[in-house]
Structures are given as structure tokens and as C-alpha cells.
Amino acid sequence: MTETGFEKAPARDRRRFPGISSRAYEHPADRSALVALRRLTGFDTVFKALSGLLPERSLRLLFLSESVRVGETQFPHLHAMLRDACYILDLEKVPQMYVQQDPNPNAMCIGLDEPIIVVTTGLVELLDEEEMRAVVGHEVGHALSGHAVYRTILLFLTNLAMKIAWIPLGNVAIMTIVTALREWFRKSELSADRAGLLVGQDVQASMRGLMKIAGGNHLHEMNVDAFLAQAEEYESAGDLRDSVLKILNLLPRTHPFTTVRAAELKKWAESRDHQRIMDGHYPRREDDKDTSVTDSFRQSAAHYADTVRTSKDPLLKLVGDIAGGAGDLGGKLRDKFTGAGAGGGSGTGPRPEGKGGATEQG
């Protein structure tokens, strides 16, 4: 195998997606942000110019000196997985990959000029081959989407915020940006989970991997259905106080909660969007330049609106109820001022059919 090519096909027969655009699997909120950033003239140039200020060179040297670089003679099974993932997602240049000694299971894709993938020994020891394949696909998905650039910036800004925490206004300004980046990055993790599924093509392995990350290497003691039920309970249980606590717990995180990731991935795996990709119908990379920013933002807004409408979370249900109530109130005010519905009668008294209609919609 060469650095920019492949000598052989993946280890087992899996569907390949030639020329696939990352838009095919990106979460709507992630996609809208990326489309907008890609369309900004000079965006890549500006951020590459920042590479001198960011600790990228230091990180590369650190991994080169303190970690094990994956290749044909070191962690060859991970090397094969990485090659397969790049082959399936048609990522021509294979990123460098390192294994870092750390008992905590973790993986990341960082870098401005060229992405590098880092996995910890805790993760390698925790997951079986198919579970690890989904994780490697997850990180290759980050690379294909260009997430590595923004992840590196997020790391830099987070470290900067810690260093200037003693400056009240400066810290607030940086943390505002960091909070927004974290919200975007949480959605990018859902995108990368989908990429991992496209690479592994085994939804059960993806589920097991997420479950092990949450509960450790005790698979015989865990159950995927029960794990997914936790996500359902997390979303719907409690009252408004719990909803606020969920937000506070989530704000400092760069990743969504593990049960939520599992539920979101299962939902996408069963969707028509996923099936269309598996059937070979997906957006191509060559068309990325023609993607409409407006359409992407519209899809993102529709997703958030649908989330509010269908959510079982007490706070989001309240928001949805208020929005629905405001719409109903607006309709009543419009009828009152335009005289609609008042013909043939005095205009006073309730209208049972209107009330019934409102109940049915609610």
C-alpha cells in the first residue's frame, strides 16, 4: 500500500462509496456550519496561517516521540482497519495514526494541515475488531468532513480560556466561542458515528462499542435494548429542574452522552437516508462547491424545530406547547381583527368545532 493509494480491497466484502461527500452522513446542524465555513473565501488560508500560533507542531512531535505510530509493522490490525476505512469512504490520503498509552478509552482526530488520528491503549484493549472498526471509521469520518481543523481550534481556545481565567471579560469572550464550538462539535460527533457505521456496516458492533465505552468490558452483563431504554428514560423522565440540569451537565462536554449517541445512531441506521446511501444514492464530493448555504441552514432549522416538536424532554415540550399556544393565539387574534368566522352570527360564544380542531392538533 502507498501513502495515497490502495493495493488491495478491505479485509471482508463491504460496500464502498466512491466519491462520497461528507454531506451524505453529516448531522443537519453540523452540515450547515461546515457548508457555510467552506464557502467563506480564504477560510482555509486564514486557519492555516493560524497553525503557527496553534500547538499543532508540538502535538505532532509529542505523538511522534511518546506514542506508537500505526503501520505495517506496528499495530498492523489497526493499520488494516485504517486502510479499509479510507478505501470505503474514498479518502485518498491515509492519515497518520498513533496509539497513546492511556487507560481511558478515547480517540481523536486533530490537525490543521493534515489530520492525525490518535487512539488510546484503553480503547484498543476494550473493543473487539468490529467495534474498533467502527471507531476507526468514526475518526476517518472526522477527517473527511474537515472536523480535525475545528477540533484543533477548540482545543487551543479551551486551553487559552484556562490560562486567562483570571481576566473576567477576556475569559467570558473566549468561553462564549468555546460554548458555541462545543455545541457544533457535539453534533459533529453524531456525524462521525454515522461515518463509523458506513465503514463497519454492522450496527450491532457500533452499539456494543458505545455500550462498552459507557460500562466497560463487561458485555455479558449488559444489554443493548436496555441501554437504549436508558436514553429514552433520560430524554423523557423528570421535570423542568431535570431539564435544566441536563443542559448544565452537557455544556462543558464536547461529546453527547453515550446513551444518546447510541439512540441517535440506531434511529439513523433505520432511516431512509441511510438506506439510500447503502443503495449507492448519495451526494458526491465533486458537487460540494455547488451546495446552497441557505438550504443547509434551512435543513438545520427544520431539524431543531422537529426536535422541539417531538421531544419528550419536559423543557422542550413546554417550549413546543408555548410555541403551539402562541400560534393558536395568533390565529384567534387574526380572526378577531379580520372578522373571519364571525359571519351569520353575533361573533360571541364558543365554537365547538374550532375547539375540537385545536385539541386534535395538540
Topology:
Layout: H1 28-39, H2 43-49, H3 56-66, E1 68-69, H4 76-88, E2 96-100, E3 107-110, E4 116-120, H5 121-126, H6 129-145, H7 147-163, H8 168-200, H9 203-215, H10 224-236, H11 240-250, H12 258-269, H13 272-278, H14 293-310, H15 314-338, H16 352-361
Parallel strand pairs: 2-4
Antiparallel strand pairs: 1-2, 3-4
Main-sheet strand order equals 1-2-4-3
The unreliable regions are: 1-10, 341-362
Total number of helices: 16
Helix share, percent: 55-70%
Q: So what's the overall shape?
A: globular
Tell me the number of strands. Answer: 4
**Describe the biggest sheet?**
4 strands, mixed
- Assess the beta-strand content as a share of residues: under 5%
Summarize the structure.
With about 350 residues, the chain is mainly alpha-helical. The chain has helices at about 30-40, 45-50, 55-65, 75-90, 120-125, 130-145, 145-165, 170-200, 205-215, 225-235, 240-250, 260-270, 270-280, 295-310, 315-340, 350-360; strands spanning about 70, 95-100, 105-110, 115-120.
